[in-house]
Amino acid sequence: MTSQPAYIRHSVAESDVTVDWFFGNASVALKARQLALVGISWFFALLPVALTAWALIHRHDPDSLWARYSDWYATWQTMMTIVVALIAFFAVTFLAMFLLNRAAMRKRNLRNTFHEHRLERRLAVSAEWYEEKYGDMQARTAESRVVVLPGGNIGTFELRELYAKNDVA
Known about the structure:
Layout: H1 14-17, H2 28-57, H3 69-112, H4 116-134, H5 137-142, H6 155-165
C-alpha cells in the first residue's frame, strides 16, 4: 500500500457524513433531537386538523371565538401579518443567497476563462513535468506497453500543484 498522495488535504470518515436516524445505532442525544423534530412536525401537521374539528364542534356555541366575528377577524389579521412577514423574510434571504451565489459563480467563471499567456505557461509547465517524469516524447510514443504503478493516476493533481507553484493555477 502506498502512502497518501500530497494532493489529499483532508480525509473524512464515513461515520462523519452518515446520519443515523431514529431507529439506528445513534447516541441518545441525537435520538432526543430527532424525537423533538418529529414531535414538532406532528404538532404542526395535526394543529390544523384539531382547530378545524374544534371549530366544527363549537360552530353553534355563541360564546366561542368562532361565533364572535370581530375577535376571529382580529386573530386572522394577526396570523396573516406574521405569515406575510415570514414569507418576506425568506424571500429576501433566498434572494440574497441567490445573488451571492451568482456573484461567486461570475467570479469563478472569469477566473476560468481562456487566457492566452496563462495557457501557454501551463502547457510549458506540463511539458517540462512530463519530460522529467516519463522521458522525452520520442521515448514515450515508442513504448508499446504502458504499466501504471499504484498511485500512478495522480498526475492531474501533481500538475495542479505545479501550476499553483508556477502561479498559473
